[in-house]
Amino acid sequence: MPSANQLWRDARCVMPQQKNPPAQRTTTEGGVQGEAAGDGQSHPLYSQDRQTVDRLLAAETPSDGDLVDAARLLSRYEGFPGAFDLQSDLERAIRLWGLNRESLQARTRALWQGGYRPGAGASGAEPVGSGFDASSETGA
Fold first, then answer.
1. Helix or strand (DSSP H, E) at 111
2. Which whole number is the average pLDDT over 66-82?
3. What is the pLDDT, as a whole number, of residue 122?
């Protein structure tokens, strides 16, 4: 009589291996595709990025910050196996602005090379960093 281990090993060899089906892009009630709809992997920054993408979609004329945010998020989600709604909304936002990925990259590259800093405002005079000036505290 075969042992339990032998039976188990034989059963595994005979049973077909099940593969996980690919994630299906489904639409939830209201037409929203996304993390709740089971779109592949869940990105840890999805909810924060969703708010940013919604803001980008509402922008008729993008600011420098909007362009940088769009390029940053396109880069973050490029090749990511999930958040398909967010990815398609990003593509839609740049199309609404009359841009494509290449022109967006060119514009944001020019912004960074021209000295753009996030949150610097129109003057560009705000320092990058903590803003703590140690020399004024020590009397130097």
1. helix 101-113
2. 95
3. 53
Taking the CA of residue 85 as centre, how many other CA atoms within 13 Å lie in the half-sphere pointing to its CB?
22
- Residue with structure tokens 């509402």? 58
pLDDT of residue 40: 83
Give the pLDDT band (50/70/90) at residue 119: confident
- Select from 131, 67, 118 the least CA-distant residue to 97: 67
pLDDT of 75 > 50? The answer is yes
- Mapped onto helix, strand or coil, the DSSP state of residue 40 is strand
Q: Are 77 and 44 spatial neighbours (Cβ–Cβ below 8 Å)?
A: no
Q: What is the pTM of this model?
A: 0.60
Structure tokens at 14: 């005979």
Could you give the CA distance from residue 27 to residue 39 in angstroms, rounded to a whole number? 9
Hey, which residues does 40 pair with through a beta bridge? 82
CB 57 within 8 A of CB 96: yes
Spatial contact of 115 and 64, defined as CB atoms under 8 Å apart: no
Length of the chain, in residues: 140
Task: Note whether 95 and 104 are within 8 A (CB).
Answer: no
pLDDT at residue 58 is higher than 90: yes
